[in-house]
């Protein structure tokens, strides 16, 4: 059956990464098509828009960082996760710094080596940072204009932007327009929430949301929801279903959590209230430690961060009830990272991965 | 036009192997190609579809009638499409994707191409070459190099069963 190349492209865009890389061996024209940056971008956009990657997460396998991740899917019905496969990153003792649209910025234990890792192609692009990375905060975003990924390293006095053009990193160092921004963000050591083309941070004193805009490499202030009641001392940012989510604890006893979602688009600053989670004291004794993760159906999955009870619960807003997930434990910071199939940076071979003493990649 | 007279209008479609099919206009205009012909007033007699054979056209018309009988409920439409495509073999799917493209039916195009992708997901490179009629233009060294680069993607591939 001879199908014209335009139709073959439409079909291939619907495949996941593994068969696409395999089918580079079919013939030269398929290899050229699948390697084409335009095709990579189209495939990426389709993954963002389709529901193929919905509710997929990388779940850290243990407290220590050496046991890799499980790729899991939250099941639509019930409180279960389905484990699809095991995934290993480029470093043993790796730390996930931040993540964006399927790519993960990861560092080794020395914090001298960094890589932008794509778990779906099993490849990484190594990044050689210049300085002050120990006292910094990180952001990552896909520039909506160039469609390339940018890593922003937020230092105290200035910030560096690394853009990955033509398979090599280009660094630009910039000074802040408002000097206090760098101090506040770098000091917090919180990673940026990297979603929808920008990286967002919540900062205190004053309480505001700051974002890095990759289009002009500047830090800007995002307007908060108008009817923000509560959140007197802190607000928290999180990625929710490919959008920026924000939540605050409300009420005099801070027993409810209001969650908002920002409309798509860097310049669209309007917020929509998603849900008000009541009675959080039922799942977290120290109530400030919960974190919304995703929606399954009309319920919201929440991570509870108790010292001894680091698990997942589902909140049913109609019944105002929590139900625990069975046998799921979430470890540490970035213990649950949204996963998306993407062909970005398929160029560097993963054959550099060296197996360590315990059979895990170094 | 149907809307003016209140009686359903029937169109006659002709495949490239000269089979004739009657189909309600309301169902047929799911195809933008046919809708344009109707709007241009070329639908008075028989509408010739030079790129679709009778067997494929019969299948497309079954789909047109089936999907247009379902009210605006995306879930139900999706499950109809899944069921409609579930028993089709690769050759039929390939014929249908060409027909959907020629007839400019985006919903069928989406569903059939997704189904083909689903069928391909675990297939071998050899299977794809045979089914798509593609000649391997790599030298053995080149092919080995491309395969080596993405070695892990060859794990878990189905053994070819339908030759």
Structural class of chain A: mainly beta
Helical content of chain A (DSSP H or I, runs of 4+): 10-25%
Determine the strand fraction of chain B and express it as a percent band. 5-15%
Low-confidence stretches of chain B: none
- Largest sheet, spatial ordering of strands of chain B: 2-1-3
- Going by helix content, strand content and strand pairing, the class of chain B is mainly alpha
* Large-scale geometry of chain A: globular
CATH-assigned homologous superfamily of the largest domain in chain B: Potassium Channel Kv1.1, Chain A
CATH first level of the largest domain in chain B: which class? Alpha Beta
Organism (chain A): Erythranthe guttata
InterPro entries (chain A): F-box-assoc_dom_typ3 (IPR013187), F-box-assoc_interact_dom (IPR017451), F-box-like_dom_sf (IPR036047), F-box_dom (IPR001810), Gal_Oxase/kelch_b-propeller (IPR011043), SCF_F-box_component (IPR050796)
Protein name (chain A): F-box domain-containing protein
Pfam families (chain B): Skp1, Skp1_POZ
Descriptive account of the structure:
Chain B: Residues 108-152 form the SKP1 component dimerisation domain. Chain B: Pathway: Protein modification; protein ubiquitination. Chain B: GO terms for molecular function: cullin family protein binding. The complex is a heterodimer of chains A (362) and B (163). Chain A has 362 residues and is mainly β. Chain A has a domain at 5-44. Chain A contains 5 helices and 24 strands. Chain A has helices at residues 5-12, 17-22, 28-35, 37-49, 179-188; strands spanning 56-60, 69-74, 81-87, 95-100, 103-107, 114-118, 123-127, 137-142, 149-154, 158-165, 168-175, 193-195, 198-203, 208-213, 218-222, 236-240, 243-250, 256-262, 271-277, 290-296, 299-305, 310-316, 321-324, 336-338. In chain A, the strands form 6 sheets. Chain A has a 4-stranded antiparallel sheet, with no helix packed on it. In chain A, β8 and β9 form a beta hairpin. The longest helix of chain A is centred in the first third of the chain and has 13 residues, at 37-49. Chain B has 163 residues and is mainly α. Chain B has helices at 2-5, 25-28, 32-39, 54-68, 74-86, 90-103, 106-120, 125-132, 140-149; strands spanning 10-14, 20-24, 46-48. In chain B, a hairpin with a 5-residue loop joins β1 (10-14) and β2 (20-24). In chain B, α5 (74-86) packs across α7. Chain B is elongated, with a radius of gyration of 20 Å. The model of chain B has no long low-confidence stretch (mean pLDDT 89). The chains are: A mainly beta (362), B mainly alpha (163). The A-B interface holds A 1-3, 7-8, 10-12, 14-16, 18-19, 21-31, 122, 349 and B 90-91, 94-95, 97-98, 101, 109, 113-114, 116-118, 120-123, 125, 128-129, 131-138, 143, 146-147, 149-150, 152-154, 157.
């Amino acid at each position: 059956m001879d199908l014209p190349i335009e139709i073959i492209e439409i079909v291939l865009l619907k495949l996941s990464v593994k068969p696409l890389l395999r089918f580079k061996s079919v013939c030269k024209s398929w290899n050229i098509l699948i390697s084409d940056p335009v095709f990579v971008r189209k495939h990426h956009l389709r993954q963002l828009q389709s529901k193929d990657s919905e509710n997929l997460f990388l779940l850290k396998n243990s407290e220590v960082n050496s046991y890799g991740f499980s790729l899991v899917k939250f099941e639509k019905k019930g409180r279960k996760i389905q484990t699809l496969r095991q995934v290993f990153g480029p470093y043993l003792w790796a730390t996930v710094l931040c993540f964006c649209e399927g790519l993960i910025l990861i560092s080794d234990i020395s914090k001298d080596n960094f890589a932008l890792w794509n778990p779906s192609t099993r490849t990484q692009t190594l990044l050689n940072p210049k300085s002050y990375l120990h006292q910094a905060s990180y952001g990552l975003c896909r520039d909506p204009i160039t469609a390339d990924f940018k890593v922003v390293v937020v230092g105290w006095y200035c910030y560096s932007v690394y853009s990955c053009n033509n398979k090599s990193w280009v660094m630009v160092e910039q000074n802040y327009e408002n000097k206090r921004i760098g101090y506040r963000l770098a000091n917090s050591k919180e990673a940026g929430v990297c979603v929808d083309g920008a990286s967002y941070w919540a900062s205190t004193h004053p309480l505001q949301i700051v974002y890095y805009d990759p289009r002009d490499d500047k830090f800007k202030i995002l307007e908060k929801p108008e009817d923000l009641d509560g959140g007197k001392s802190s607000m928290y940012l999180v990625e929710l279903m490919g959008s920026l989510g924000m939540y605050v604890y409300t009420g005099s006893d801070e027993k409810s959590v209001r969650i908002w979602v920002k409309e798509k688009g860097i310049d669209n600053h309007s917020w929509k209230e998603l849900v008000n989670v009541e009675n959080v004291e039922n799942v977290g004794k120290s109530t400030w430690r919960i974190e919304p993760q995703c929606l399954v159906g009309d319920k919201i999955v929440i991570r509870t961060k108790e010292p001894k009870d680091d698990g997942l619960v589902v909140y049913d807003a109609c019944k105002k009830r929590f139900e625990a997930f069975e046998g799921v434990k979430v470890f540490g910071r970035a213990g649950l990272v949204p996963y998306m199939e993407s062909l970005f940076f398929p160029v560097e071979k993963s054959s550099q991965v060296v197996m360590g003493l315990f059979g895990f990649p170094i | 036009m149907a809307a003016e007279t209140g009686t359903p209008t029937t169109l006659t479609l002709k495949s490239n192997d000269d089979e004739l099919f009657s189909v309600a206009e309301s169902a047929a205009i799911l195809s933008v190609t046919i809708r344009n012909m109707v709007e241009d007033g070329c639908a008075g007699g028989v509408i010739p579809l030079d790129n679709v054979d009778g067997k494929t056209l019969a299948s497309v018309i079954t789909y047109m009638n089936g999907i247009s009988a379902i009210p605006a409920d995306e879930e139900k439409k999706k499950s109809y499409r899944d069921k409609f495509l579930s028993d089709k073999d690769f050759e039929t799917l390939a014929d249908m994707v060409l027909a959907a493209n020629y007839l400019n039916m985006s919903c069928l195009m989406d569903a059939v191409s997704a189904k083909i992708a689903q069928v391909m997901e675990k297939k071998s490179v050899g299977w794809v070459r045979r089914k798509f009629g593609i000649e391997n233009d790599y030298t053995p060294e080149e092919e080995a190099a491309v395969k080596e680069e993405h070695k892990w993607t060859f794990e878990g591939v189905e053994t070819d069963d339908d030759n």
